[in-house]
Design goal:
- The protein is of the alpha+beta class.
- The chain is built from 21 helices and 20 strands.
- Strands 14, 15, 16, 17, 18, 19 and 20 form a seven-stranded mixed beta sheet that branches. A five-stranded mixed beta sheet has the order 11-10-9-12-13. It has a three-stranded antiparallel beta sheet with strand order 3-2-5.
- Strand 10 (267-276) and strand 11 form a beta hairpin.
- The longest helix has 29 residues, at 524-552.
- Residues 246-252 and 552-557 have low confidence and may be disordered.
C-alpha cells in the first residue's frame, strides 16, 4: 500500500492538543456526527495521535482517517474499564470500521427430567424444571442428532408428561424400537433407571464406563444364547463409538472453548468449539463483517472482546491458536465480568492442541460452505465479468491443477463451477501417464487435451472460462492445446501466486499479454478465482492421496500385521465391527484392551496407507 499524507483540519489539531494521557475510549466521527470507529487506549493522547502521523501504510487506517471530522473521548480509571466500555459501544453503534459480529443468544440444551420414568428432550431458555441439563450445544441440529442417537441406543421416552400419563397401549415409537414403552409397563423401573444412568454418565464424559457395561451385557447375552439381545448390545456399542468419534473428543479437562480463525477468498470465519464435561459437544461459526485491509489478529481480538464480554456461557479456559496484543487485558476483563478466573491459553501439544486442530478443521469447512452459497457465487461471477471485461457473465467455469509426490501417481483435477457454485457431479480426475516424472507442463497439456477433445467429440458445450493453476508456462501449454483443437484461446486464464506467494496478490495471465493483471485483494472477482483454484487444488490432492493408498494397501480387511487372533477379537468387541475400526483414530484404537499406542499406530498406518 503506497504511503499517503494526512491533512489535519483545525478542529482535529485542537482536539489532539488537549487529549488526556489516561486510559479511555475514543470515537472517530464523520461530518454527520456518525461514529466511524471505536477504540480503547492505555494512553488516549498517544493512541489517538498515532492515527494522524504524516504517513500511513495501513490501507484501512488511511481510508478511515480521510473521513474523520471530529473525535470524542471518554476517560476511564483503568484499561480494563476502557475495554469493557469499548465493547459496549461497538455493540450499540456498530461502527463501519470496526469488525462486527452478531450477538449470540441462548444455546440449546438436552434436558433429562427427574420423574419416575424420566424423559430426554430438547430445551432452550430458562432452566426452571427439575432435572439435569446437558450442554450447551451449538445448534438445534446438534441436539436433535444427539437425541436421535439416544433413542436408538437406550430407547428412553421423549413424549410430553400429559401424553405419557394417558397411554393405554404403546405408541409408534415403541413399534419402531425407539422407546421401551414405560407408559404401559413394558420395561421395569429398575431397567429403565439403568438406561437413564447410562445416559447421564455418557453426557458427563464417562462414555468408556458406559460402553464397558454394554460390552459385559453383550457377552452375557451371547453366553446365554440370547443372540437377538447380543446383537442389540453390539449395535449400542457401535452407535456410542460412532458419536464419540464424530461428535466428541474425550479429554481430562472439564469445560473449555477452543477458538479458531480462518480466512479464504474474502470470507473470514471465527469458530468456537465447545468442550463440556471433557467432550466436544459441537461448534458455532461466526462470519464477521471485516473492513478492507483488516488484519486477522484484529478480527480475533474483536471477537474475544465481543463474545466473551456478552451473555455467552464462559468456561474457565479458552484455547487460542495465537496471542494478541490485548490478550492479557481481555482475560482480566472477562475474569472481572465473570467474577472468577478465566484463562486464555495457547496450547502447543497434547489433548488441548488436538482440540484446537479440530476447531481449525471445522473453521476451514465452514469457510468452504459459506463460499459455496448460491447468492455469494452469483455476485462474484457478476464481478468477474466486470473485472475481466467479458461480454457476458461466465456461467460455466473449469479449473485444472496437478498433484503428485516426486513425480509418482501424478493426477490432474478438473473442477467445474456454475451459477450455483461447485458442480461436483461434473468434476473429473485424469491419471497422467507416459510423461517424464515431475513434468507438470506435460501433465497439464495431457489433461487439457483429453478433456476438450472429449467434449468436442461428444459435441458438448465448452466452458465460458478455463483457468489453469500456474503462470505463463502453464498458460502456454493450454494455448498450444486449444490451437491444436481449434478452440478460442481468449477463454484461457492462468493464475499464479505473487512474488511473496501471499493470498490476495495473485497474478492473472491472459493469452497474448506480457504483463499480468492484479486485482484488489477485496475484489469479489478475485475471490471467485481463488475459490475455484483452491477447490481444484483440494480435489487434486485428495485424489492423489487415494491413488497412493490404493497402490500401498491390498485390503482393509486382511490380517493386520502384528495383531493376532486375541487382539483382533478385542478390537471387534471394543468397536463392534471392522468399519468402526477403520473410522477410529490412533488414540481411539489404543483404548481397546491389549492394544498399546505403538500397535495402534501400526494398525492405523496399515488401514490408511
Amino acid at each position: 500500500m503506497p504511503e499517503a499524507k494526512i491533512e489535519l483540519s483545525e478542529n482535529i489539531k485542537k482536539i489532539l492538543q488537549h487529549l488526556s494521557t489516561k486510559p479511555g475510549v475514543y470515537r472517530m466521527l464523520d461530518v454527520n456526527g456518525d461514529i466511524l470507529y471505536v477504540g480503547k487506549a492505555k494512553n488516549l493522547s498517544n493512541r489517538v495521535k498515532s492515527y494522524f502521523v504524516k504517513t500511513h501504510t495501513s490501507g484501512k487506517t488511511q481510508l478511515m482517517v480521510s473521513y474523520v471530522e471530529d473525535i470524542s473521548t471518554t476517560v476511564c480509571e483503568t484499561e480494563t474499564e476502557a475495554l469493557i466500555l469499548e465493547n459496549n459501544l461497538i455493540k450499540k453503534h456498530r461502527p463501519r470500521f470496526n469488525v462486527l459480529f452478531r450477538d449470540d443468544k441462548s444455546y440449546p440444551y438436552i434436558f433429562l427430567s427427574s420423574d419416575k420414568y424420566p424423559k430426554l428432550v430438547y430445551h432452550r431458555g430458562a432452566k426452571k424444571q427439575k432435572g439435569d441439563y446437558f450442554g450447551p450445544f451449538p445448534s438445534s441440529t446438534a441436539v436433535r442428532q444427539s437425541l436421535s442417537l439416544m433413542q436408538k441406543t437406550f430407547r428412553v421416552r421423549q413424549c410430553e408428561d400429559s401424553y405419557f400419563a394417558n397411554r393405554s397401549r404403546p405408541c409408534l415409537q415403541y413399534q419402531i424400537k425407539r422407546c421401551t414403552a414405560p407408559c404401559v409397563g413394558h420395561i421395569s423401573e429398575k431397567d429403565y433407571a439403568e438406561d437413564i444412568q447410562s445416559i447421564k454418565h455418557f453426557y458427563q464424559g464417562r462414555s468408556e464406563s458406559v460402553i464397558q457395561k454394554v460390552q459385559v451385557k453383550m457377552e452375557q447375552a451371547s453366553e446365554e444364547l440370547k443372540f437377538e439381545d447380543a446383537a442389540r448390545y453390539r449395535d449400542q456399542i457401535k452407535n456410542l463409538r460412532h458419536v464419540i468419534q464424530k461428535q466428541a473428543i474425550s479429554g481430562n479437562d472439564s469445560d473449555l472453548d477452543a477458538v479458531a480463525i480462518e480466512y479464504a477468498s474474502g470470507v473470514a470465519c471465527v469458530l468456537v468449539l465447545f468442550i463440556r464435561q471433557g467432550q466436544v459437544v459441537g461448534n458455532k461459526s461466526f462470519f464477521p463483517k471485516v473492513p478492507k485491509h483488516t488484519e486477522l489478529n484484529e478480527v480475533l481480538e474483536t471477537f474475544l472482546r465481543q463474545y466473551y464480554l456478552s451473555d455467552a456461557e464462559v468456561p474457565r479456559k479458552v484455547l487460542l491458536q495465537k496471542s494478541t496484543a490485548d490478550l492479557i487485558l481481555i482475560a482480566e476483563a472477562v475474569s472481572s465480568a465473570q467474577q472468577r478466573k478465566v484463562e486464555f491459553k495457547i496450547p502447543v501439544r497434547g489433548q488441548q492442541k488436538e482440540w484446537l486442530d479440530f476447531a481449525q478443521k471445522n473453521a476451514i469447512h465452514s469457510v468452504r460452505s459459506k463460499l459455496n452459497q448460491k447468492t455469494n457465487v452469483f455476485e462474484r461471477l457478476s464481478a468477474l465479468q466486470d473485472a475481466l471485461e467479458l461480454d457476458h457473465m461466465p456461467k460455466h467455469l473449469e479449473c485444472f491443477d496437478i498433484s503428485h509426490t516426486q513425480g509418482n501417481q501424478t493426477v490432474a483435477s478438473c473442477v467445474v463451477f456454475d451459477e450455483q457454485g461447485p458442480k461436483k457431479a461434473d468434476y473429473r480426475i485424469f491419471n497422467i501417464s507416459g510423461i517424464t516424472k515431475g513434468d507438470d507442463y506435460a501433465a497439464m497439456k495431457q489433461a487439457l487435451s483429453r478433456r476438450y477433445k472429449r467434449l468436442l467429440d461428444d459435441k458438448k458445450p465448452l466452458p465460458d472460462l478455463v483457468i489453469v493453476d500456474g503462470g505463463k508456462g502453464q498458460l502456454t501449454q493450454a494455448e498450444e492445446v486449444f490451437l491444436e483443437l481449434g478452440v478460442d484461446t481468449s477463454i484461457l486464464l492462468g493464475v499464479s501466486k505473487g512474488s511473496d506467494r501471499k493470498a490476495g496478490m495473485e497474478q492473472l495471465w491472459f493469452v497474448g499479454e506480457h504483463r499480468p493483471k492484479i486485482l484488489d485483494e477485496s475484489s469479489k472477482a478475485l475471490h471467485i478465482i481463488q475459490h475455484i483454484r483452491d477447490e481444484a487444488h483440494r480435489f487434486a490432492i485428495t485424489k492423489h492421496r487415494q491413488q497412493r493408498k490404493k497402490s500401498a494397501t491390498k485390503s482393509l480387511l486382511e490380517e493386520i500385521p502384528g495383531v493376532g487372533a486375541k487382539r483382533r477379537q478385542n478390537l471387534l468387541k471394543h468397536f463392534g465391527g471392522w468399519q468402526e475400526i477403520e473410522k477410529a483414530s490412533v488414540k481411539d484404537i489404543g483404548k481397546a484392551p491389549g492394544i498399546s499406542l505403538s500397535i495402534a499406530q501400526k494398525i492405523y498406518d496399515y488401514l490408511h496407507g
